[in-house]
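A further point concerns the way the authors explain their paired sequence and structure data. An entry of this sort, consisting of the sequence and the corresponding backbone structure tokens, reads as follows:
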Amino acid sequence: MIKALLMMIAAGAVLCGGCTRISVATVESAQPVGTPNLVPDKRVMLDLTLRRKIHVVQVNEGVVSGDLKQVQVVLASNMTKPVSINYAIEWFDENGMQVNSSSTAWKSLRFLGMEKKTVSAIAPRPNAVDFVLKLQESLARRSIFN
């Protein structure tokens, strides 16, 4: 009986070896000079598992090269252990038609515990005026312990 209990404890310790908690410490200016142009956003989160792990902090937009819209989205992890996601940004014209571009490709992003990261994209053409950020939990990183 004692042997069985000790083996269960040892197995639990081995399995929990992947449960390491890694958090990120940050230092930033107490009085930032830059003023973001925050965008009111609409959020539709259908994946409840992803919703518990990642949240959108803010959406900021600007203009670069005189006529191309740029968007930056600050994402933050709610977890104390690493989390991996995939994201894509799609652009649309003033008629709501999707503007095809290479920036629509899915990209990977890995967060350490409680870390914030910024994803950004520049519109492929001047007629791209709106965007949609798509988020998806990385299936390659999913495990029964997440």
Observations:
- The CA atoms of residues 59 and 141 lie 26 Å apart.
